[in-house]
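User: Here's a structure from my thesis project, written as C-alpha cells. My advisor, Dr. K., wants to see whether a designed sequence matches the one we expressed. Can you design one independently, without my sequence as a hint?
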C-alpha cells in the first residue's frame, strides 16, 4: 500500500520512525523507493545539488514540475512531496493555491512543502489544506531565507525557541500533515515533537523527531559541500571518478 499523509500521523502515534530523503530524478527516486524510504521529497535543494546554483532561490516552478514528474515515475510506494520554490507561494494565497495545484495536477505528487510559520504563511497552509492540498511545513532554518538567516542554527535564544514552538503549533492547527524542523537545538525539537499531534521530520535537529530527512546528494557524498549535521554514508564522487578514470584508461590504452 502506498504511503499516505494519514499513515505518517499513525506512525507518529505508534512510535515508528519516518524515513525521508530527497530525490531529483527518476533513477535516484527508484532506488530510494525500492529501498523502502517512506517519504521522498523533491526538495528545492536540487537547485544546488543537481543544477549547480549557489542557493535554492533561482529555481522556478516549471523546473520543479519537470523534476517532480521524473521522480514520480520512479516511485511506487513512498509519499512524494514537492517543494514550492521561492516566490511561488509567498505573494498571496491565490498564488500558493495556483502553484500547489499545478504540482498535484501535473506531476502526481501527493503533497507540497513550503517554508515559514509566520501568521500569513499559517493562513496560506490553512487555505491549501481546505482546498484539498496536503502541506508539509518547514521551520527553523529555512534556506529560502538564506540572505537573512545564513545557514546558522536557529532557535538558540529563549525568545526564538518560543517563536518556533508557536509556529509549529499554529502550522499543526492549520492542517499541515507534518513539519520539517531544520537545524534547531535537539531539546527544542524534542519539546516540539512532544507538543504537536503531527510528525516532526528533523534535519540537524537531533534524534527525538518523529522522522529524519537528509539531502540524498549529501548522504551519498555527491555534493561539493554539505552542512556539518549531514552525515555522509558513501563516497560516490570517488566511485564515479574511479570508474571514469578506468574507462578513460581503457579507451586510450586499447586504441590501435
Ligand atoms: O530542499 C530540501 O532538500 C529540503 C530538505 C533539506 C528538508 O528542504
Ligand atoms: Na527545500
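Assistant: Designed independently from the structure alone:
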Amino acid at each position: 500500500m502506498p504511503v499516505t499523509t494519514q499513515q505518517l500521523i499513525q506512525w507518529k502515534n505508534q512510535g515508528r520512525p519516518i524515513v525521508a530523503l530527497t530525490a531529483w530524478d527518476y533513477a535516484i527516486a527508484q532506488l530510494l523507493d525500492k529501498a523502502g524510504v517512506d517519504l521522498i521529497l523533491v526538495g528545492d535543494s536540487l537547485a544546488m545539488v543537481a543544477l549547480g546554483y549557489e542557493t535554492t532561490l533561482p529555481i522556478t516552478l516549471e523546473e520543479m514540475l519537470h523534476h517532480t514528474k521524473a521522480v514520480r515515475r520512479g516511485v511506487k510506494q513512498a509519499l512524494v512531496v514537492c517543494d514550492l520554490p521561492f516566490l511561488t507561494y509567498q505573494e498571496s494565497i491565490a498564488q500558493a493555491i495556483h502553484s500547489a495545484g499545478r504540482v498535484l495536477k501535473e506531476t502526481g505528487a501527493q503533497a507540497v512543502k513550503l517554508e515559514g510559520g509566520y501568521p500569513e504563511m499559517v493562513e496560506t497552509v490553512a487555505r491549501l489544506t481546505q482546498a484539498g492540498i496536503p502541506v508539509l511545513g518547514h521551520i527553523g532554518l529555512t534556506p529560502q531565507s538564506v540572505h537573512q538567516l545564513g545557514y546558522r542554527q536557529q532557535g538558540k535564544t529563549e525568545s526564538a525557541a518560543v517563536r518556533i514552538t508557536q509556529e509549529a503549533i499554529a502550522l499543526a492547527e492549520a492542517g499541515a500533515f507534518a513539519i520539517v524542523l531544520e537545524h534547531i537545538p535537539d531539546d527544542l525539537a524534542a519539546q516540539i515533537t512532544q507538543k504537536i499531534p503531527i510528525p516532526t521530520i528533523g534535519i540537524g535537529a537531533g534524534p527525538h523527531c518523529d522522522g529524519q530527512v537528509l539531502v540524498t546528494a549529501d548522504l551519498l557524498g555527491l555534493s561539493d559541500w554539505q552542512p556539518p549535521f549531514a552525515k555522509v554514508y558513501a563516497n560516490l564522487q570517488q566511485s564515479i571518478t574511479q570508474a571514469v578514470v578506468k574507462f578513460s584508461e581503457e579507451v586510450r590504452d586499447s586504441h590501435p
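When you compare it with your expressed construct, this may help: The chain has one domain: 5-253.
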